[in-house]
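Continuing from the previous page...

OK, I double-checked the sequence for BatD family protein against my notes and this is the correct one:
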Amino acid sequence: MHRLQLFLSLSLTLLALSASAQIHVTARFNPPRIAMGDKSQYVVEIKETDSSQKPEIERVTSLPIPQAGGLELSNGRTSTSQQTSIINGTAEYSVTQQLIIDAKPPRVGKFSIPSYVFQYKGETYRVPAATLETVERSADAGPTTDELIFLKAETPEQLYVGQTTAIELKLYVSEDVRLTSLNSFDRSADGFTISELPESQQSREFYNGRQYQVYNWPLTITPIQTGEQDLSFQFTISANIPGQNNRRDPFGRRGFGGSLFDDLFGQSERFTVYNEPTQVEVLALPTADQPDSFTGAIGDFSMKVYTDRDHTQVGEPIMLSIEISGQGNFERINGPNIPNNQEWRSYEPESQFSAHNPGNVLRGTKRFDYVMIPNQAGSIEIPEISFAYYAPESERYTELSSPPIPIEVSPSDKPTPAPINNQLPTTETTNSTSARPLQKELSIEDALLTLDYRPQNNPTFNSSKLQKTSIWLINTIIAAALLATALWMRHKRRLKEDASYADLQAAKHERRTLAKSAQQATDSEQFYAHAQNAVRLAVTCRTQQNLRTANINELVAQLEQQQIPEPIISQTRELFQTADAQRFAGNRTHSDLSSAKSQLERILKAI
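Thanks. Re-ran it with the corrected sequence; updated structure tokens here:
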């Protein structure tokens, strides 16, 4: 009995809630009557009211609209609003969602979109029919808004995934119109990465018998997924259009409230301007005959390889430079891999791009500078360097190779440090006052490193003076200064004489620099490049092995040997996987890097 009462109570509560929430669906054309050449808007409105709480919106992204009798429907978008009313102490909440679609009739006549049903919050609702009437334009009617202001995007029909190409975005504004502001810019291009909108370049152009002021924005696009990909742009602008009131009436009559002042100077109105919807076919790169040295370069390139000198000493670095020149997706070009061998050790390169023409990121030269340090003396070679790219025009891969570069390496001329005898000379007990132990004359540096604090026959001072704070403080400062100087000189001497110690200290300094650069980076590509190198150097410093070019598997093996906690190893692997996705898969973003920076800080502290 008790369960039955509970069930009835819950049922009544749910019925009361459902009764308090009401959903109304309407449809209309705005305006419902236009002149031939103008556009109307097909608006579906979903209004939900509730007296108990504010309704939650369920986004509607598409509608099963039936055939509209030839109407051209495009540029769908949504708009939402909410309202709270209190009448006689009772609150009523309402939320309205509008789906707005531009409608352009192909001819004079009436066009109806019949009634249809759609799903919203798990329920089925019916959209009522709506009718648009199109009439002949009067002989003295002016041009339509679409003829005065329009947007064009020159896009290619076909691209390869990862292929960067330049496009032009042009906003045409008739000389009869005064553009007051560009309020916002938006794009619908989920399958592309697109460069930031630069400053516009302005020109004049005669188009379809009318003079226009043209605002031109050069952009670059790079497809990141295959298939048919939508690419569209829109601007929200404000403009003064003379005689706008007359054009709103299909018969040329001045609207209610219009004036001669409006006809002469126009009213500032807000418009959303779209380019014609376009699709780009994105093809996958062929896998047949793809060279091992291919890392994503698409275009037409040449390669130049050289060193800053042809001779050096063991342990002394030389600079190997690789220049990639031509046209293509330079942002996705990484430094060619240096083959591993026992004769050289190398480090991640520094890169620099120089555009052949200012502002053109598709034509230029990208240089990679590698530090190469020989491990042995003799006539040794920098190994062959290979770089491959895909040429869309010829639809084939090309691999460029440079021959090995001979380098003469002489033995190091750095002196081998002599062992230091830290034991004090012994003296024999003798009655002869002239007998002296034989001692080596010490340099200033050696004297500081082997300070002699043996008691000496010093003159006796008044004990009260020795107890003075000032004398004790001075002695402490002098002793600390001598010790610090000794440690510094020892450090400098080890840097000169101990190559492994010098490399370790350089790694520590470079690690701190890279960690700081990573924390200050605002671009994800820069951050992950610095982060990877900082982790490699941190492991290098801990293990005292050269792991500057190690991959993640080699680093993980070293971290496991050092008994680094498993969560830190997992975070390190995750960091490198994300970095590789940025570098090779093109997942470049400008998102918030705060969590990734915190993750890097935890990894470096643990290592």
